[in-house]
Amino acid sequence: MAEITKELAAYEQQRAELEAKYMGKWILIYDGKLIGVFDSIQAAADVAVQRFGRGPYLIKQVGAPSVTLPASFMYHPV
C-alpha cells in the first residue's frame, strides 16, 4: 500500500474536481499525475499495463468508496 501513497494523495488533492467532471468514470493515476479518464476499468487497466507494466499505479472509479484489495490481487489481461 505504501507504494501508491503518491497516487492516493494525488487523487485526494483532485477529488472535488474529478467528482465534478468525471463522476462514475475510471481514472488512472501514475507517479502522482492523472494519466487518463476511462469509461471502464478494463480500458484503464489496458492503458496502465501497456504504459507502466506492473505499476504501481492507481485505477479508481471516481466517487466510489475506497476498496482494499488483498496483496495477492493481480490483473491479468485476457
Top keywords for this entry?
3-stranded antiparallel β-sheet; 3 strands; 78 residues; 2 helices; alpha+beta; single chain; globular
Set out the fold topology:
Elements: H1 5-22, E1 26-30, E2 33-38, H2 41-52, E3 58-61
Antiparallel strand pairs: 1-2, 1-3
Put the structure in a nutshell.
With 78 residues, the chain is of the alpha+beta class.
Fold and architecture overview:
This protein has 78 residues and is α+β, with helices and mostly antiparallel strands. It has one domain (2-61). It is 38% helix and 19% strand. It is built from two helices and three strands; from the N terminus they run αββαβ. The protein has helices at 5-22, 41-52, and strands spanning 26-30, 33-38, 58-61. The N and C termini lie far apart (25 Å). The mean pLDDT is 88.
User: Low-confidence runs (pLDDT<50, min 5 residues)?
Assistant: none
Please trace the helix and strand order, writing H or E for each element: HEEHE
Radius of gyration: 12 Å
Q: Decide which structural class fits the backbone.
A: alpha+beta
Give the % helix: 25-40%
What would the average pLDDT be, to the nearest integer?
88
Report the β-strand fraction as a percent range.
15-25%
Tally of individual domains? 1
Count of strand segments:
3
* Spatial ordering of strands, largest sheet: 2-1-3
- Compute the number of helices: 2
Main beta-sheet annotation = 3 strands, antiparallel
Spatial shape: globular
